[in-house]
Design brief:
Helix content: 25-40%
Strand order of the largest sheet: 2-1-3-4-5
Number of helices: 9
Oligomer: single chain
Order of helices and strands: EHEHEHEHEHEHEHEHEEH
CATH class of the largest domain: Alpha Beta
Number of strands: 10
Distance between the termini: 22 Å
C-alpha cells in the first residue's frame, strides 16, 4: 500500500482523515506533533504527508523547514491542513515547499483526497464485490506503487461510492447478485458512465456493457495487465499487500 503520514494533534481530525484515506487505499501513519512527525517521516519515508500548522512543540512551518533541508525527505509531497489560513500563512507554507494549502472546515475531504492523488501521480481503482475474502486476490493482483485500491463490499453502496470516490477504473465482481443491474447503473449514471469497468466473472459469463471481462480463473495473469494498460501505468516489481483496505462506506 501507499504510505501516507498524517501529522495532526487533534484526535477527532486524526480519526476523520485517517478513516477517509484508509478507505482511499492508503496505509496511514499518525503523528501527534512535529517532532514525532519528522521521526516517522525518516522511518517510513511516506509517499505523501498531510500536515497541520498549529501544533505543540514544533509547528507545521518548522516541519516544512526541516523537510526541505533534509535531502532524503525534501522530495516527499507535503500538503498543509490548517484552521489558520491568512494569505500570509498560505504564502509562507507554499514558500517552504508545501504542495497545497487546505483550510479546515472549508476544503471538502473528497477534494483533498483527489488533489493528493493527482499531485502525487496516483490512480484509483474501486474494487466492487460482496466480501473482503473475494476482494483480497483482486487487490493483490493490482498492487502497484501508483495505484490505490479502494474496496466496497455493500452492493447497494457501489454506485454511490463510485460517484463520490472518482475512481479512474472500476473492477466489478460479476459473480455477485444483481451484477448486471449494477453494471447497467454504473454505465448509465452521469457521474460514472465514462469510467472503464472491468468485470471479473466465472467462465462463460459475458456481462453486457463491461469494457473488459476477466475470467476469474485467470485473475492473476490477466487482470493486472488489463488495468495497467487502461491507466497507462508501467509495470513495477512490488510486493503484494498483506491486507485489504477498509471497505468504502456511503
Amino acid at each position: 500500500m501507499t504510505n501516507l503520514l498524517l501529522i495532526e494533534d487533534n484526535p477527532h481530525l486524526q480519526r476523520i482523515f485517517s478513516e477517509k484515506f484508509r478507505r482511499e487505499g492508503f496505509n496511514v501513519t499518525l503523528a501527534n506533533d512535529g517532532h514525532q512527525g519528522l521521526q516517522c517521516a525518516a522511518n517510513i519515508h511516506p509517499a505523501v504527508i498531510l500536515l497541520d500548522t498549529m501544533m505543540p512543540n514544533m509547528d507545521g512551518f518548522e516541519v516544512l523547514t526541516h523537510l526541505r533541508a533534509d535531502p532524503a525527505l525534501r522530495g516527499i509531497p507535503a500538503f498543509v491542513l490548517s484552521n489558520r489560513a491568512s494569505s500570509d500563512d498560505i504564502q509562507h507554507a507554499l514558500a517552504l515547499g508545501a504542495r497545497q494549502f487546505f483550510t479546515k472546515g472549508f476544503s471538502a475531504l473528497e477534494d483533498i483526497a483527489r488533489q493528493v492523488r493527482v499531485t502525487c501521480g496516483l490512480k484509483k481503482a474501486l474494487v466492487c464485490t460482496n466480501s473482503l475474502t473475494l476482494a483480497e486476490p483482486i487487490v493483490s493482483a493490482l498492487a502497484h506503487p501508483q495505484l490505490l485500491c479502494s474496496v466496497v463490499t455493500l452492493l447497494d453502496e457501489i454506485v454511490g461510492a463510485a460517484e463520490r470516490g472518482n475512481p479512474e477504473i472500476i473492477v466489478l465482481d460479476a459473480r455477485v447478485p444483481n451484477a448486471l443491474t449494477l453494471l447497467q447503473q454504473l454505465k448509465t449514471n452521469p457521474a460514472t458512465k465514462s469510467v472503464p469497468v472491468i468485470a471479473v466473472g466465472s467462465p462463460g459469463q459475458t456481462p453486457n456493457r463491461a469494457d473488459a471481462f476477466i475470467d476469474s480463473a485467470r485473475l492473476v495473469s490477466d487482470l493486472r495487465p488489463a488495468v495497467m494498460n487502461r491507466l497507462g501505468l508501467e509495470e513495477s516489481a512490488v510486493t503484494s499487500p498483506s491486507n485489504v483496505p477498509v471497505p468504502a462506506t456511503a
